[in-house]
């Protein structure tokens, strides 16, 4: 690896010059909701009525909000629920149980979300940024660069859309409930911390203040922004933390995950362990398997030793991810026999390990493939 690779700049803040998304109900706390009602010249309970429709009934159509006065219904809803996401297209895979939607934001930025229905659950993978500034070379999103952070409401609107699709039977299998949210779409969630935590709080708050989801069914991923990982541990919200590690040694991880030049493997894993110790929630270690790059048996032993150095009390679980192809990439998935040996080595050292069930790779909707191409 060259010194030029080590010095690769990371974009942790979005470019300047873009306006802010319209203010939305999901952006507002209790005091701001009251102020919004006063600004509209409406009693405070009007905002609660709209919130009941949006969070409780997953409804955004003013025509369905018949408890609002007809003369001012459109004005109230337009003020509190301005359109944030415009669907460009939806692609389906796995018999329609995997749905990838390309969204255009108010300023023309493009993001994607992926809704996946399984026999026992339904999960939506949401984006937290338009693009990503982490520059991981094997990830299509990272290669596109960062455009901007998304707002709390832009994140929540992806979840509401997925929940509504499930509730209304738009996904094969009949009406159902959205049970899980993973921040594994476009962007580095910890680099948009305030909006992401705001979205998590809206997800777990009971209706009409939020969606009433279980924090244990929400996963926040990160490539290892250590200060934010520590901050998350103190939030008092027991979400699952997923650390995208991808290599157990600094030399390789510096190349695969450039933020590692700021926060080493040791610092990053220690922050993950501190999260587990504080929250009593098991951390997931995400590890994309790349042929002849990070899938050697000796690296499995090294990974196990790194994780076991913090104790064997079950604080961690390794989730191996078969690398998904991206156009023009030199990176390819591991051979099946190498993947099996990697699993065997980890398990032999007492590390619970699974291999991720890849969904949506044929529609570029799998992990590392989201690029929001409007073509």
TrEMBL record:
InterPro entries: Aldolase_TIM (IPR013785), Methyltransferase_A (IPR040072), RNA_MTrfase_RlmN (IPR027492), rRNA_lsu_MTrfase_RlmN/Cfr (IPR004383), rSAM (IPR007197), rSAM_sf (IPR058240)
GO molecular function ontology, one term from the record: 4 iron, 4 sulfur cluster binding
Cofactor(s), names only, from the UniProt record: [4Fe-4S] cluster
Subcellular localization: Cytoplasm
Keywords linked to the UniProt accession: 4Fe-4S, Cytoplasm, Disulfide bond, Iron, Iron-sulfur, Metal-binding, Methyltransferase, rRNA processing, S-adenosyl-L-methionine, Transferase, tRNA processing
Binding note for cofactor: Binds 1 [4Fe-4S] cluster. The cluster is coordinated with 3 cysteines and an exchangeable S-adenosyl-L-methionine.
Pfam families for the chain: Radical_SAM
Catalytic activity: adenosine(2503) in 23S rRNA + 2 reduced [2Fe-2S]-[ferredoxin] + 2 S-adenosyl-L-methionine = 2-methyladenosine(2503) in 23S rRNA + 5'-deoxyadenosine + L-methionine + 2 oxidized [2Fe-2S]-[ferredoxin] + S-adenosyl-L-homocysteine; adenosine(37) in tRNA + 2 reduced [2Fe-2S]-[ferredoxin] + 2 S-adenosyl-L-methionine = 2-methyladenosine(37) in tRNA + 5'-deoxyadenosine + L-methionine + 2 oxidized [2Fe-2S]-[ferredoxin] + S-adenosyl-L-homocysteine
GO biological process annotation, one example: rRNA base methylation
Span list, region Disordered: 1-24
EC id: 2.1.1.192
Active site residues according to the UniProt entry: 112 (proton acceptor), 367 (s-methylcysteine intermediate)
Binding of S-adenosyl-L-methionine, residues: 187-188, 221, 244-246, 324
Residues holding [4Fe-4S] cluster: 132, 136, 139
Function of the molecule: Specifically methylates position 2 of adenine 2503 in 23S rRNA and position 2 of adenine 37 in tRNAs.
Family under the similarity heading: Belongs to the radical SAM superfamily. RlmN family.
Note: Reaction proceeds by a ping-pong mechanism involving intermediate methylation of a conserved cysteine residue.
Protein name stated in the entry: Probable dual-specificity RNA methyltransferase RlmN
Organism: Aeromicrobium phragmitis
